[in-house]
């Protein structure tokens, strides 16, 4: 953890999670104001310093802004923190210092103290942690946006990881979404306003479904069955110690991506884990017709024996029959470069009546994005995910699409985009080069 | 006929048990002193020999629950808690014991513990407040703070505590989770204030 963030973490730890919309808007607003003030100070000062110093000044501004944002997000947690995590998935476009800080959110959110945990246990399981378990570590060993994770031992000696949700998180997310809704109201006269609202409502429903650990537990079990016998390990669930707000699962020993990369592993080992991460994503995509929308480093444990622990199943979307058919058929059209069929699918995706209604600028950008996404599949043989040109192209496309802000699409595909970006980001961080095409096409052939 | 102390205690106990049952079944507002005395098998006037009002009767129940919460806290504390954590543990243990009274604790506290109700002293309310603050004083002393019972710091604590109770009585979140956050925040605020005043930095630490 960056030492610079420590005072902020300890400060935000002292604050109650505000679930009231007004308080949350105010907190965010004041945070933005501070960042804006800092930027103003930088803009004035930059005119009076040399080039090199100017760069340092800008880095300093960015870092301070990130810290400010981190403080705010640690305080607000909930959906805002999820957005922070999402940004952490984009090392291509964010300066390195910011990515490291955002990444820390995935593991180092402000913790609840042990007396707090004991109350949660009494409310959820009717017993104190030390009554439920043979041993229970008072300090969390991992924390995320919605909860924190403690190590414990069952009375039969099995080591487990116990995920405990922050109190009142559903209300917090609701308050975030209401705030976002209020902010959106200022744009209500824009022509695509209703589509924008659809996206927010969709995000709301997905984030809210994430607060139900029983649903996550059921999906984890489904994945455990799916990956049984493979090199992907999905932890065993302990339903007797699991509720909507406490999830008890087998503890998987290993490293997270950041500590793994800190050991400077050879390419073969990086490729090995990159292939396993890709397999986990692609296999479930085709086999369960599921998107893991929260594909960030904190969801994987890189185990000493070469297996990959897949440990978080909170944020996912399931294709229905109609969407699945659309996905498979449009993917085939992409591979065939069948422009007529693609126009048909794009018309459906943008909810237009005829291809003539399509915005040519959006179509052009969308097709360029598709080409970027399928480049590793179309490559003959190993694909270099760390290739500067590929990474830069992806970052440019993302910025272009953010700037243009097309919202007239089915919000469901936000999650597949998020998963794909998360995947490419992980591959980039692993600096891997392997035959992704064979992996993808084999799975596609088997299950489509 | 002279009524023995033992008989008095027995009648008082019966009234309390009956009242608790009726409050739970019908609600505090819907239960009258007439209902309680009838169900206790005593005349309405006799009830007032024991309790001045329905509120003071309920406050006696609340006082008993607070005492039971203090015992729970004593049993649960490990000695490893920091100041904020220990205060949190104390207040949370007490609220857990008070849970059966949550729905009607508002009017009871308003009449028996409110900072504005000084005209008629409610002995049960005074006793509850005294015992609660005595425990807080002990916790503070354990962490290096010596506070007088009537100091401004204790007044600050009491205001925060009443705020917690008021919020908790209307907290509709699952298991009153929002109140847990509020207790933590309030105790942290309190610890920050007293440590800033006294210069004892370690007090705010949860370690």
Automatic annotation (TrEMBL), chain A:
Keywords: Kinase, Transferase. Residues 135-448 form the Protein kinase domain. The keyword Methyltransferase does not apply. One of its GO terms (molecular function) is ATP binding. Pfam families: ABC1. This is Putative unusual protein kinase. It comes from Desulfocapsa sulfexigens (strain DSM 10523 / SB164P1). The lineage of its organism: Bacteria, Pseudomonadati, Thermodesulfobacteriota, Desulfobulbia, Desulfobulbales.
From TrEMBL, chain B:
Residues 32-51 bind DNA. InterPro entries: DNA-bd_HTH_TetR-type_CS, Homeodomain-like_sf, HTH-type_Tx_Regulator, HTH_TetR, Tet_transcr_reg_TetR-rel_C_sf. PANTHER family: ACREF/ENVCD OPERON REPRESSOR-RELATED (PTHR43479), ACREF_ENVCD OPERON REPRESSOR-RELATED (PTHR43479:SF11). GO terms for molecular function: DNA binding. Residues 9-69 form the HTH tetR-type domain. It comes from the Bacteria. SUPFAM superfamilies: Homeodomain-like (SSF46689), Tetracyclin repressor-like, C-terminal domain (SSF48498). Gene3D superfamilies: Tetracycline Repressor, domain 2 (1.10.357.10). This is Transcriptional regulator. Keywords: DNA-binding. PROSITE patterns: HTH_TETR_1, HTH_TETR_2.
């Amino acid at each position: 953890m960056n030492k610079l963030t420590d005072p902020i973490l300890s400060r935000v730890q002292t604050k109650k999670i505000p679930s009231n919309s007004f308080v949350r808007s105010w907190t965010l607003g004041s945070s933005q104001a501070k960042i804006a003030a800092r930027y103003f100070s930088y803009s004035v000062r930059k005119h009076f310093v040399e080039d090199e110093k100017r760069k340092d000044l800008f880095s300093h501004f960015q870092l301070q802004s990130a810290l400010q944002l981190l403080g705010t997000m640690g305080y607000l947690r909930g959906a805002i923190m999820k957005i922070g995590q999402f940004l952490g998935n984009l090392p291509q476009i964010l300066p390195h210092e910011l990515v490291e800080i955002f990444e820390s959110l995935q593991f180092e959110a402000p913790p609840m103290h042990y007396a707090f945990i004991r109350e949660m246990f009494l409310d959820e399981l009717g017993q104190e942690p030390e009554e439920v378990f043979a041993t229970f570590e008072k300090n969390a060993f991992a924390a995320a946006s919605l909860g924190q994770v403690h190590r414990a031992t069952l009375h039969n000696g099995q080591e487990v990881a116990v995920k405990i949700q922050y109190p009142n998180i559903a209300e917090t997310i609701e308050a975030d979404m209401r705030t976002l809704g209020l902010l959106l109201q200022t744009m209500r006269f824009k022509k695509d306003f209703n589509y924008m609202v659809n996206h927010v409502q969709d995000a709301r429903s997905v984030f809210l479904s994430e607060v139900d650990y029983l649903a996550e537990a059921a999906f984890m079990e489904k994945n455990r069955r799916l990956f049984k016998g493979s090199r992907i390990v999905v932890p065993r669930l302990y339903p007797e110690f699991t509720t909507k707000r406490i999830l008890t699962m087998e503890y998987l020993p290993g490293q997270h991506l950041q500590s793994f990369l800190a050991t400077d592993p050879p390419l073969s080992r990086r490729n090995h884990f990159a292939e396993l991460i890709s397999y986990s994503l692609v296999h479930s995509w085709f086999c369960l017709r599921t998107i893991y929308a929260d594909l960030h480093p904190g969801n994987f444990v890189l185990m000493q024996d070469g297996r990959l622990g897949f440990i978080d199943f909170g944020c996912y979307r399931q294709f229905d029959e109609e969407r699945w058919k659309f996905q498979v058929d449009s993917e085939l059209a992409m591979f065939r470069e069948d422009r007529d069929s693609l126009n048909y699918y794009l018309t459906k995706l943008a909810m237009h009546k005829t291809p003539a209604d399509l915005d040519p600028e959006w179509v052009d950008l969308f097709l360029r994005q598709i080409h970027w996404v399928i480049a590793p599949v179309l490559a003959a043989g190993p694909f270099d995910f760390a290739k500067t040109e590929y990474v830069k192209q992806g970052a440019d496309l993302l910025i272009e699409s953010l700037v243009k802000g097309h919202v007239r699409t089915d919000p469901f595909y936000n999650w597949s985009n998020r998963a794909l970006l998360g995947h490419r980001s992980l591959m980039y961080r692993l600096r891997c080069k392997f035959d992704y095409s064979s992996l993808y096409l084999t799975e596609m052939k088997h299950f489509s | 006929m002279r009524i023995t102390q033992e008989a008095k205690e027995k009648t008082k106990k019966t009234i309390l048990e009956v009242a608790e049952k009726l409050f739970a079944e019908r609600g505090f507002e819907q239960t009258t002193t007439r209902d309680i005395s009838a169900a206790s098998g005593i005349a309405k006037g006799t009830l007032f020999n024991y309790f001045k009002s329905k509120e003071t009767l309920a406050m006696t129940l609340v006082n008993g629950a607070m005492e039971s919460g203090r015992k729970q806290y004593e049993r649960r504390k490990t000695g490893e808690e920091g100041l904020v954590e220990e205060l949190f543990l104390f207040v949370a243990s007490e609220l857990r014991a008070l849970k059966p009274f949550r729905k009607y604790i508002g009017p009871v506290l308003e009449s028996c513990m409110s900072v504005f109700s000084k005209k008629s002293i409610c002995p049960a309310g005074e006793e509850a407040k005294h015992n609660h603050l005595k425990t807080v004083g002990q916790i503070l002393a354990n962490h290096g703070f010596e506070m007088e019972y009537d100091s401004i710091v204790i007044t600050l604590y009491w205001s925060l505590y009443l705020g917690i109770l008021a919020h908790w009585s209307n907290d509709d979140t699952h298991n009153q989770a929002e109140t847990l956050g509020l207790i933590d925040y309030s105790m942290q605020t309190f610890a920050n204030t007293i440590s800033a005043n006294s210069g004892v930095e370690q007090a705010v630490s949860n370690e």
